[in-house]
Amino acid sequence: MAFKIYTKTGDKGLTSLWGGARVPKHHIRIEAYGTTDELNSYIGVVRDGIEEEAMRNELKNIQDRLFTLGSILATDPNKEMATPDLHLSDVEDLEQSIDSMEKTLPALKNFILPGGHPTVSFCHVARCICRRAERLAVALNEESPVNEVVLKYLNRLSDYLFVLSRKIAQDLGAEEVIWNSRK
Predict the structure, then answer these.
(1) Does residue 118 register a pLDDT over 90?
(2) What DSSP string runs through 96-131?
(3) CATH code, 41
(4) Does 180 reside within a domain?
């Protein structure tokens, strides 16, 4: 018999964590890993808009790390479960990529508005979703401890996505949209 995608077990607003605990679908843990999943999807959109193979591979690696991060967040904190692991070296990889991209970019002298090219805009959407995922993970951490590397990774990833948006704009020859405040 084939596996069915629907189980009907969530029809009353509950879902299962990895480990078996049932929680409301609006629980902050579900919001945190659901938002991480949303982020992963938008990074897929960004990746689809990029032709450079090295950058596509880097984004695929980030998607793999986000899937790992989501599985950590989706695990019942009251059960000892083996989960895929996220390493401090994953955070350091983001930092190295940020540093490498920044070497090729002009100094930032203004605030940047999302826009200039669809891929750049989607990268900004991913950055905003990453910030939301981080806020939710921080809020969850106040209720139930979250692995410190998860919090660091999300924080650094939003920085990475900002710098990546600038790098993509540069590579595409797209205008970097500057914010001009009214005086």
Answers:
(1) yes
(2) HHHHHHHTTSPPP-S-B-S-SSHHHHHHHHHHHHHH
(3) 1.20.1200.10
(4) no
Query: How many domains are there within the chain?
Result: 1
In tens, the pLDDT along 22-36 reads 765 777 877 899 999
**What amino acid occupies position 38?**
E
Host domain of residue 55? 26-74+88-172
Least confident of 15-19, 70-74, 104-108: 15-19
pTM: predicted TM-score of the whole model, two decimal places: 0.90
Q: Considering only CA atoms, which of 60, 73, 88 is closest in space to residue 27?
A: 73
